Amino acid sequence: MMRYSIRGPHKGPALLATAVALATVAACSGGSPSGSGTSAASSGTTSGTSASAAPTSAPPSPTPTPTRTYPLSTAPRTVPAVRDHEAARGPGWKPAAPAGVVIAANSAGLADEGRLLAGELGIPYRGTVAAGPGDVELALGGTGARESYTLTVRDDRVRITGPDEAGVFYGTRTLKQSVKGTGAMPEGVVTDAPAKPQRGLNVDIARKFFTAGWIEDRLREMADLKLNQFGLHFSDDQGFRIASDSHPEIVSAQHLSKAEVRRILALARSLHITVVPEIDSPGHLGAVLRAHPDLQLRNVQGVPRQGAIDISKPASAQIVDDLLREYSALFPGGWFHVGADEYQALTVRSPSASYPQLAAAARQKYGPQAGVQDLAEGWLNDRAAVVRAAGKTAKAWNDGFFRGGVVTADRRIEVEYWTGKEIGARPPSEYLAEGRKVVNLNDEYLYYVLGEPNQFTYPTGRRIYEQWTPLVLRGTTPVAARYDPQILGARLAVWCDLAAAQNQTQVANGIRMPLTALAQKVWDARTPTLTWDQFRALAARVR
C-alpha cells in the first residue's frame, strides 16, 4: 500500500521534482572528494493536509543543487619539505586549460622564472597580464627573509610571491614538484624559507675533468632541490682546468673554455645558484708549478715539496694574484675560495729548520718572533685582500687558520670546515668562539672521495638524513646549539683523488641521494617527519 497517493494532474510535476533532487544528490556525492553529506527534501503533502485531498497551493519547486564540500588539504609533498602549510578546503590546482603563467605588475624580472615554469608544467606563458581563471601568477613583494616565498592556492588559481626573485623561483620548484608527484597543488597557503643561506655542492674538476654539460646537469638538479651554491675547484696538482689569458702556460689540455664557463654561469644565474671558484694556494699548485719550477718550495737539502709554492718569493704572490684577479672578473658571484690547506712546509717537525728561507721571510715581514706559520697566515690574508678588492668575500679551508702565532687570519674570511685530521687540529668550537662564520663540509658525512682512499667511504643519503645536521661540523658530535647562527650552511663535496675510480655518470648517480638528503637538512632545521624509506620514495616521485 502506498504511503502517499499521487493523483491526476499533479503526478508528473511531483515525480519530476523527486527525480531531480535524487539525481542531484547522486551527482554531487560521486563528484566530490568527500561526498556532500546533503540530502534533498522528499516530495509529498504539506503537514496537516490529507493525502487524498486536492492541494491548496502550487507543487513544491525542485531543491537547489547542494554545495560541494572538500576535506581539509594537506601540505604538498616536496623535497625539501615546505616549512609551513595552512590547510584549506578546496579542489586545489591542476595544470589544465585555460591555465597559463602570468607575471604581476612591477615584477618583470620574473619573466625567466615564468617561462621556465610554463614549459615544465606544459601550459602557456602569457607575460605581464592580469591573472585569469586557472592561472599561476608570479609576483615580487612582501617583507620576508631573503629566498622566502608564499604560495597561495585559492579559487582555482596559484599566486607565488616573494621579496626577491630567488624566493619566487623556489616557490615555482614547490609547485613543480607537487604537480609531478600528485598531478596537483593542494588548496591553502605555503609559507617557506631556508634555514641556512649557503646550500650546495662542491666539485673537484682539477683532478678529474668534468664536461660543461655534466656541470650544467648538476646545476639543474641543485635548483630543483633549492640549493644555491656550487663550488668549483679547478686548480690543483693534477690540472688547471679553465682557460687563462694571463697565464696560458699553466692550463691543462683538458679544460673548460671561457665561453663554456660563461654558459655555465648564465645557467647558474638563471637558477639562482652562485658559482664559487677556487684557486688553492700556497699548496695544491702543482699544475702551476710545472710551468714555473723556479717557484716550487724546496727544503734545506733542495728537495721539492709536491704542489707547494715558495711563499718567500715575490714572484709567487704575483702569479697567484694574477690568477685571482683574472678569475674574479670572470666569476660574478660574491665569493672566491683561496684554499690555504695542507701547505707542506707546515707538516714537518721543524718548519724553520727545514725551510730557513721561509723563516727568514717571516721575521723580516712580521718581526723577530714570527715563524713559518705566520708567513703562511699572512699569505692567506694577502690573497683574501686581493679578492676583497674585487668585491668578493674570501673562503678558506679550516686547516689554513692557526692558533698562537704572531699573525691572525682576517675575521672576514669564511671558514670552510672539513677536517679535524690536520697537524695541530683545532676543534670547530675554537673557530666559533672567535666569532668566525663557518660553512660545514664535514669529511665524515659530506666528502665523496673517488676510490675511497685514506679510509674515506662514500657518503650515503640515509646517513646524512638520519644522523647529520649543520651543527655536526667534525666527526659525529654537534657543536653547541648557540653557535647555530654562525654556521652559514653546508655543501656536499666531490673530490677526485683516484680520478679513474668512477666515470661522470657514476659520480652523478653516487651523489644523487646524499645531495637530496643534504638539501632537506639545510632547508629545514627540524627533525624530518618522514622515515628514510618514505623520503627516498618521495624523492623518486617528485624529482
Please tell me about this protein's structure:
The chain is built from 14 helices and 18 strands. With 543 residues, the protein is α/β, with parallel strands linked by helices. Strand 15, helix 11 (428-433) and strand 16 form a beta-alpha-beta unit. It is elongated.
Whole-number mean pLDDT: 90
How many strands appear in the DSSP assignment?
A: 18
Broad structural category: alpha/beta
Strand content: 15-25%
Give a short overview.
This protein has 543 residues and is of the alpha/beta class. It has 14 helices and 18 strands.
Write the layout of secondary structure elements.
Layout: H1 11-31, E1 84-86, E2 101-103, H2 111-121, E3 125-127, E4 136-140, E5 149-154, E6 157-162, H3 165-182, E7 188-192, E8 198-204, H4 212-224, E9 229-235, H5 258-270, E10 274-281, H6 286-291, E11 296-298, E12 304-309, H7 314-330, E13 335-339, H8 351-354, H9 356-366, H10 372-389, E14 393-397, E15 414-417, H11 428-433, E16 438-440, E17 447-449, H12 461-467, E18 487-495, H13 504-523, H14 532-542
Parallel strand pairs: 2-3, 2-4, 4-6, 8-9, 8-18, 9-10, 10-13, 13-14, 14-15, 15-16, 16-18, 17-18
Antiparallel strand pairs: 1-7, 5-6, 5-7, 11-12
Helix pairs in contact: 2-3, 4-5, 7-10, 9-10, 12-13
